[in-house]
Amino acid sequence: MIGSKTPYKIVISGGPGSGKTTLINLLKERGYICFEEISRDFIQLGKEQGIDNYFKTDPHAFSKFLWQGRQNQFQQANALTTNCVFFDRAVHDVVGYLNHVNDPIPVWEEQLNDFAYDLVFLIEPVEEIYHQDEDRMETFEEALKVHKSLTNTYNKSGLKIIHLPFTTPLARLDLILKHIKNG
Q: 8-181 falls under which CATH superfamily?
């Protein structure tokens, strides 16, 4: 609950192209502490080394980078004195993506309970706003499959999940803020 010893940890997750980063940016504009998506940094590093799709080339190496980075974000959040903090994806996303490609790391699945996020907002990709770019290489159909895998992973975790409907970014932001205010 907001006001506890450690910050209330809120994850914004969902398949590629669902508007997560837009929401994170809106939250940052309003002064909230947000941990950003870290995969694009690693994707760019891979491209500099001549690897077009690092995740598909070596899913475990790519995921290890994300797992460690998201663990660090979680630990950094616990050290903060703010009421709440937002994450653009979490460790559960790493497991969800690996499950999506049928290449799980079972020990990570077992460790998910060590990451007690307080609330998860799941956002489904929407075809009207979906676009591929140099870092988002999935087709829209693939993005929906990724979202399904992420949803399954979060559902198994026992975390409180709220599915955000498709609407404008500001309306989604209002829904998020209402939920955490009443949290």
A: P-loop containing nucleotide triphosphate hydrolases (3.40.50.300)
